[in-house]
Amino acid sequence: MFEDVDGDGDVDLLVTAMGGPNALYVNDGTGRFTEATAEAGLSLWAGSTSLALADVDGDGDLDLYVANYKRIALRDSLPPDVIAWERVVLRQGDTYTVAPEFADDYFVEVHGTKVFRFEYGEADVFYRNEGGGRFTRVPFTEGAFRDADGRPLAETPREWSLSVQFRDVNDDGAPDLYVCNDFESPDHFWLNRGDGTFQAVAPLAVRKTSHSSMAVDFADIDRDGDLDFFLAEMLSRTHAMRQVQRGTPPPLPRAIGDLTTRPQVMQNTLFVRRRDGTYAEVANLAGVAASDWTWSARFLDVDLDGHEDLVLTTGHAFDVQHSDAIEAERARLGRVRTFDDYKRLILDYPALAQPNVAFRNRGDLFFEPVPAGWGLGETPDVTHGLAAADLDHDGDLDLVTNRLNAPPGLFRNRASAPRLLVRLRGLPPNTRGIGAQVTVEAAGLPVQRQEMISGGRYLSGGAAELMFATGSADSVRVRVRWRSGRERTLWAKPNRVYEIEEAAGR
């Protein structure tokens, strides 16, 4: 991901790695990069999947959140007999504990008469920018993160994180934080308390989430002035595939009417914000509950009608939910003699190449599927990351995807409708205006508002550029509210690229 982390006006490069060290390369201003990972305090050997930067504490520079999955998962690296239930879980009467040699990797929960074993994921990392591109790791347990009642966390969460994104969801000027987690590990929705610390959202504000959340994105999909959000999961779009695939169900019992829990459902979820700060989940109503095995999600006004559409990347190397393959694997387990034989069982699963998916926002809380995904879904493949940037300087956002065992996908936006592209030149050290709110008013179109973000995508980032529809208007009103509190308003002509300076604001 490219971002100006040291505030000198040029973009530096942050790189994540799965099972290897993350890295920071500092730009010297001439396009030459020097590794400065250790000097910046960012040395981390983990299973990192996503990065997000924002000025969390309002001091002007960009703080960093790193979402981690797991560097080495026991479920994938040890034979079944080594991690068998009876070797991991010890019972003494009605008490269940984890064997000492597995205590760092597993925990048990007892619900009524049922006992469940879970594998820990890896702890995420939050870094505070101390200025000049130097970072300090912030513990989760010393007041920076608090539960819904405002109490400091007693333990560092160890979840299976896939994506993270900063967004100012309550319009108080401070970036909030959403973390997507795989499997049964719950998502985390943190509200910024205004001082750079976070508090978990109230339990009743979000009543359920996707089970294996892959990605998150925010947009004002109903144009009522506040941010709604979408979570990506894996539900197939076809009835036939739903009968073949066997998902990993949430194992914990959920009682109807039990308000103390937050159920996880095996489908995409779409949340519309109410005026009281709670959210209604409407994915089935809106028509976006299923999009196949989804990895990245991006709200983008593809047809430039003033309403942000939804673009999704899909596919997987192996369909590990395929029921027949699961049964074939079980039948072969008894004949496995070596760990290499066990690892080769994955080859029993069929490949899951799928076309990417796009939904058009009709502007009435309903989305409709777009044939061939506006060109993104013409051929099946396995696509993970999704990045947007104006690559050909024509004022609209083109798309780049990273694909498994295939070259990257490059998709040129051929939109012909009038539009406006906005870039920001912020005051140092936040030189690209991350966290600024940009509002565009054009005659005949709903009011459009977007936030300049950095990172926040699964295995990908994107350029610090915002695209707006302008309709038939000869000029549009643009208002920028910076993270510093400064504001600037100007009138802009359609089919232009505007770079707006914070120094000219008030």
Instruction: Outline the biggest β-sheet.
Output: 6 strands, antiparallel
Report Rg.
Answer: 23 Å
Beta-strand percentage range: 35-45%
Calculate the mean pLDDT score and round it.
Answer: 92
Strand elements, count: 41
What portion of residues is helical?
A: under 10%
How far is it from the N-terminal to the C-terminal residue, by CA? 31 Å
Helix run count: 7
Return residue spans where pLDDT drops below 50 for at least 5 consecutive residues. Answer: none
- Derived structural class: mainly beta
Report the principal-axis shape.
globular
Structure commentary:
The chain is mostly beta strands and 506 residues long. The strands form twelve sheets. Strands 3, 6, 7, 13, 14 and 37 form a six-stranded antiparallel beta sheet that branches. A five-stranded mixed beta sheet has the order 15-20-19-18-17, with no helix packed on it. A four-stranded antiparallel beta sheet has the order 1-2-4-5. The chain is globular and about 75 Å long. The mean pLDDT is 92.
Helix and strand arrangement:
Elements: E1 2-3, E2 12-15, E3 18-21, E4 23-27, E5 33-35, H1 37-40, E6 45-54, E7 63-68, H2 74-77, H3 85-88, E8 89-92, E9 95-98, E10 106-111, E11 114-119, E12 122-123, E13 125-129, E14 135-138, E15 145-146, E16 158-159, E17 161-167, E18 176-181, E19 188-192, E20 198-200, E21 209-210, E22 216-219, E23 228-231, H4 239-244, E24 264-265, E25 269-273, E26 279-281, H5 283-286, E27 294-300, E28 309-314, H6 323-333, H7 339-343, E29 357-361, E30 367-369, E31 383-389, E32 398-403, E33 409-411, E34 419-425, E35 437-441, E36 448-451, E37 454-455, E38 466-469, E39 476-481, E40 487-492, E41 496-501
Parallel strand pairs: 15-20, 21-24, 34-41
Antiparallel strand pairs: 1-2, 2-4, 3-6, 4-5, 6-7, 6-37, 7-13, 8-9, 10-11, 12-16, 13-14, 17-18, 18-19, 19-20, 22-23, 23-25, 25-26, 27-28, 28-29, 29-30, 31-32, 32-33, 34-38, 35-36, 35-39, 39-40
